[in-house]
Amino acid sequence: MKFAYRFSNLLGAVYRQGNLNFSKDGNSVISPVGNRISVFDLKNNTSETLPISTTKNITCVGVSPDGNVAIVVDEDGAALLVSLITRAVLHHFHFHKPVSSLRFSPDGRKFVVTKGNVALMYHAPGKHREFNAFVLDKSYYGPYDETTCIDWTDDSKCFVVGSKDMSTWVFGAERWSNLIYYSLGGHKDVIVGCFFEKDSLDLYTVSQDGTLCVWESDTQLDGLILAKSKDKDRTTLTPGHEDQEVEEGEVIRGKPEVPKDEKRKTVRYKQISKHFFNKDGDFNNLTAAAFHKSSHILVTGFASGIFHLHELPEFNLIHSLSLSDQRISSVAINSSGDWIGFGCSGKGQLLVWEWQSESYVFKQQGHFNNMASLAYSPDGQYIVTGGDDGKVKVWNSNSGLCFVTFTEHTSSVTSVAFTSSGFVIVSASLDGTVRAFDLHRYRNFRTLTSPHPAQFSTLAVDVSGELVSAGAQDSFEIFLWSMQTGRLLEVLGGHESPVSCLCFSPVQSVLASASWDKTIRLWDMMDSWQVKETLHLTSDALSVAYRPDGQQLAVATLNGEISFWNPHTAAQTSSVSGRHDLETGRKDTDKVTAKQLAKGKSFTSLCYSADGESVLAGGLSKFVCIYNIKEQMLVKKFEISSNLSFDAMEEFLDRRKMTEFGSLALVDDGEGEDVHISLPGVRRGDMSSRHFRPEIRVSSLRFSPTGRSWAATTTEGLLIYSLDGSMVFDPYDLDLDVTPVSIRQQLRRQEWAAAIILAFRLNEKALKQEVLETVPHDQISVICASLPDIYVEKLLGFVAACLENSGHLQFYMMWAQNLLMLHGQKLKNRSAAILPTLQALQKSIQRHVDNLSKLCDFNMYNIRYAAALSRQRGLKRTAEDDDRVSEDMSEASSDAADIMML
Questions:
Q1: Beta bridge pairs of residue 184
Q2: 369-493 and 740-867: same fold?
C-alpha cells in the first residue's frame, strides 16, 4: 500500500482570530483558522482548507480586488503571498513586527500595511514581473500610538488610518499638493473603523466607546492637485533623502513648507454630526465595524455579542440582534451588500447573515475545547466527534461542514462510535451516561446509566449494534447494556486498574479490554461474558485495536511499544518500538531536553488501515506514525502541525528568549490570542483572567472504511489526510510492451478488453480514464464478462474513485452494475479483502443519490411553478380572447341594427 496521503481538509474549527474576507463574487468566506486559511463556499455548502500554513497563528489577511492573490500575516509579522487559484505560496516576506491591518487599493496597484504607529505602502505584487514581490513605496508617520484600521478611496488616490491614540489620519497615496496628510480628532477612545464615502473624501469614523463621527470634506476627489517636481523635495523632511531612492522607501512626515508667495487651497474637514450607539446606558465596547459604500450600510459588532445595522449618514437603525454572549471579533460585508459575515473568536463561531431576509446563510461552530475522539460512519461519508465541551458533532466528510450538534451531555465526551447501520451514534461521557442518537430524527433516543455513579472513559459497540460497553476510570469495571431495551446486562469486573480502551472484534462477539494493570482481557459475549483469554503485557496498556478481519490485535503500552497478538492463541506475533519516532517537543516549563522527555512518551491512540497491513499511531506529539506490521518498520511520519503558537512544538529552547529569570515564554504579558480562562460567572472586567498556550497532541485516530483517507483529532482541529492518486506512479506487471502508444493502438483496433488490461498494468489515472470512457456503452457487459478476476477488482476500485467526481454518472454506474452482477459470487468470496473498495463505491453512490434527490425535489417545485404560471397565462389569454370576441359580436350586432334602420 502506498502512503501518498496529503493534507486534505481541516474540520472542527471554522474561525479562531483575525479578519474575515469575502471572495470577489461574494459567494465564499475566507476565514483564518489558527495558522491555516479555510474557504467556505456559501453557494455549494462546501469547505476547503488551503494546503499552506504559517509559523504562528494568523492575525491579518488581505485579498486583492481581483481575488487572485492574498497576503497572510501571522502574529510575528511573517507574511505569505498566496495564490487563491493554484493554492500555492508565491513569496515569503517578514515585516519584523506584528501587523494590525492590511488593505489593497481598489485598483490593485498598491497595498498598505499598518505596524506599530507607521503605515507602509507597498507596490502590489503581480502587476509587473519583478524579482522582489514586496517593494516599499512610502512610509507614513503621524499617529503616536498603534494603528488599527485602513480604508481607501474608490479611485485609490488617498487612504485613511485609524489609531489607538484616538486620532484618524488621511494620507495621499500620490504627491498631492493640497493633501499631504490630515489629522482628525473628536473621539475619546480607540478608533475601530474608518471609512470613506463612495466616490468622495467624506469620512465616517467609529471608536471603541460606541461613537460615530461624520466628517465632510470641502474638496472632491477630482479636486486633488498633483504636486510638481519642486514640491516633491518639500514633502520629504528626512535629510539626505530628497532626490534618491532608498531601500525603505520615502518617508512622509510632518507638514510641507509652502512658500508665502504661493497660496493654495488645502483640503479641509469639518465634523457635521456625531452619533452614539449606547444611548440606553448599556455600555458595551464596540469591537468590529464594516461599511458597504454602495448601500450606505454600517455594521458594528460589540463585546456582548450584539450587532447593529445602520444606514448612513442619517444613522437610521435597521436591525439590532444578538449572536451570542461572546465578543464579535470580525465583521465583513460581501460585494453586493446582501451578506454579512461575523467571526466570534471566543466560541469559534462563523456566521453569515442575510440582513434583508433576516436569515442565516451559514452558521458553523467548532468545538470550544479540545476534541477527544472521532469515528467514521460505515460508508465513510460522515465523521462524528466528541469534545471536552460536552458536544457531539457530526460532519459531512465531503463538504467538511457540521450538520447536527447534540448537546445533551453535561460533561466532557470521552468516546464516540457508529453502529453498523450507520444511523445511530453512541457516545460516552464523564457525566456518567452513555447516550445513543438517531441520525434520522436527530434526537437522543436512549440514555444508558450505571447502578452507581461512574465516569466513562471509553466505549465500544459490537458488530450487530445490539451490545454497548463502556469502561469506568474510577471503579475499574466494564458495563454492558442492550441497545434494544436499554437494560444493563452485566457488570464485568476483574481489572485492577482503570480501563483505558475497549474494542469489539469485527467478526465475532468478543470484547477486548485494555487496562493499566498490564493486561488485555478478551471477554466472550456468547458464553456468559466469561474471560476467554488474558494477555499479559510488560507495561500499562493504553490502547487496543482489532484488525478489520479480526485475526490480529494491536496494543499500545506505556513504554512506547506497539505489540501485535493473535487473539485465538493468545501469543504475541511481533512488536514495534516507537518511542523515538514520536519526537516530542519541549514545553516552556520543562527542565530537561526533548530527547530525555521522549523516553517517557508513548502512543495513546491506534487504528488499523482499511486493508489491515499497516497501523496508524499517535500520542502526545505533533507526529503521526504509520508502521508496516509485516516488516515491523516505520513507513512514514506525518507532521500534523507546524504552528509555533502551540506549546511543545520546538525541540530546543531559543537562547534569545532566555533571561536570568528564565524563559520569556513564561512571562504573561496579558496580550496575544492565547486561550483565556476567566472565573465562573464573570462576564466583563475579570482581572483574574489567565492565559495558557495549548499543548499539541493527537487524541484519536481513525482510518476511513474506504481506505482513501484517515482523520485525527488534534489540538489544531480535526485533520483529514487523503490519497493524492495523481502524484503516485504504481505500475502493475509492467514490461516493455506496456506503453501509452500500444494502449492507444489497441483502442484504434477496438480491442477494448486488451486496452483496459494494458492501461491497468501501466496504472496511470488519466490513461485509464481515457480508455474507459472510449469504450461504447453497449460493449460494457461483454468486456466485463471477459476480464480476468484480478482486473475486475482493480476496475471496480477505479470506477468507485471516478464516481466521486465524474459527471458521467450513468456511464460509470453501468460499469459498476455489470461488474457486480457478472462477478458477484467471486467478489463475495473475497469480501473481506475488497471491503474498502465496496465501501468507497457505496459512499460515492450514496452521495450522488443525496445530491440528485435534492436537485430533483428542487426542480419538481420549479416545474410545478412554471406549469401553474403557464396555465394562469393561458387562462388570462383565453379570457382576453373571449372579451375580444364578445366586443366583435357586439360591434357586428350594432352594425346590423344600423343597416336595418337604414
A1: 168
A2: no
